[in-house]
Specification:
Layout: H1 3-15, H2 18-27, E1 33-34, H3 35-42, H4 46-58, E2 62-67, E3 70-75, H5 81-90
Antiparallel strand pairs: 1-3, 2-3
Helix pairs in contact: 3-4
Length: about 90
């Protein structure tokens, strides 16, 4: 399997997870959220939320910024316009 194909497998796996889709749906509004805000809103543990956020960051779907001792996450699909388009249609 080519590296390009392997990369797309990772993307489809990420999008095939309900928790990650909930996070992406929440962040599509353009606002920044902390891990605890996301966990509370989607109803999963902080540990699970952190794992999902790390996976999405590793794919380049999110940006994180440290402010006042907290880490804030926001969506950044500028490199993935087709994925942004698909997610907006789904949600």
């Amino acid at each position: 399997m080519s590296e390009h194909s392997k990369y797309w497998v990772k993307i489809f796996k990420a999008l095939g997870n309900e928790g990650r889709l909930k996070i992406l749906r929440m962040l599509l509004g353009g606002r920044e959220y902390t891990v605890s805000e996301i966990a509370k809103d989607i109803g999963i543990s902080l540990k699970s939320t952190s794992k999902h956020l790390i996976a999405l960051c590793n794919l380049g779907f999110l940006e994180s910024t440290g402010k006042m001792g907290r880490v804030y996450y926001k969506i950044d699909l500028s490199d993935y316009p087709k994925i942004r388009e698909i997610l907006k249609k789904v949600f």
